[in-house]
Amino acid sequence: MAVPLRRSPADTRDRVRRWLTHTATATEIDPDSLFVTVPRNGYSAETLEVSGRDLDGRPRRLVVRVGATEDPVYPSESITGQAEVLRAVRTHSAVPVPKVLGVEPDAELLGAPFFVMEFVEGRVPPDFPSYHRAGWLAESAPSERTAVWWSAVTALERLHAIPADTPGLPELGAAGPAAQLRYWTDALDFYQVADDPVIERARAWLADNIPVRQSPHTLLWGDARLGNIIYTNTCVAALIDWEMAGYGEPESDLAWFLYLDRHLSTGIGAKRLYGLPDHARTVEAYAALTGRTLRNLAFYEVLAGFKFALITAAVTRRAARTGLPSDTPFPLHRNAVALLDATVEAQ
Predict the structure, then answer these.
(1) Fold of the 9-118 domain
(2) What predicted TM-score, i.e. pTM, was given to this entire model?
(3) Which CATH architecture has domain 136-345?
(4) What is the pLDDT of residues 209-218, one digit of tens each?
(5) Which of 19, 177, 267, 347 is the most exposed place for a label (fewest CB within 10 A)?
(6) What confidence tens digit (pLDDT) does each residue in 127-180 have?
């Protein structure tokens, strides 16, 4: 889910070098050796890759995560909050996430706050084209695909063992199903979709089916999906992209994980990869790992579709403003709305 971003590589390198000059102790990289790669893509935040040498002359790679500088995808975000989440996850669990080396809350240097992380070597299942159609996962053996999937589900289970009141976790806003629905409903005007009949139908269904809280709130990744996981072979090396992190019932993450996989397969007319466990097996395995019954999954799957339809509206507008067509061959929002409609219809 990427659209082009406009930034001068030379100017960005100079600005990042200026920041590293004052923080070399934290990053242990020689600012004079710096090379910055400015990818021509991004979704909400922007990711810059930094390579150079450490203070002893050895090769070193870092990643700079910059907040939205224009056309934000979310009504609100906290880059510093994301960094705090990553630090807390590394401190209080065995869940693999990148190590945060430094945080800059001032927007002056790069146009938005940012933080710097260690680079994690590995490969990520692609969104475009969908990993169900092309890429390393599609080229893998069915047994390897199965291992990739279960490694992700296991990482989710370990993440959801982190209580919402864990020391070091920041304030992240709405928690629980009613508060989550209120947050996204309040954002309908921001996303400019308040008059969409499918989205209104989904909102009404959700409002009529808010579940009673069944389990303690835990940390939620928010954007839990294969495309936000770095793999080493078939094992999770790092969970990345934490803009949607929050607190609530673990079913929320599991539902998003399943829904986004569905979007990238049947939601776009692609055949789902053989070897990836199906919905029922995944729910059964996750319940066994956590030792509890999942009671609110249907609500959270509709909520996932509702949120995704809103987000894709913003991404599509952003794509149009940067020169990409807002419809074919960029039918992201249209597909998201169609899948949401089918999901509500099935309830």
Answers:
(1) Phosphorylase Kinase; domain 1 (3.30.200)
(2) 0.92
(3) Alpha-Beta Complex (3.90)
(4) 999 877 789 9
(5) 347
(6) 989 999 999 999 999 999 999 999 999 999 999 999 999 999 998 877 889 999
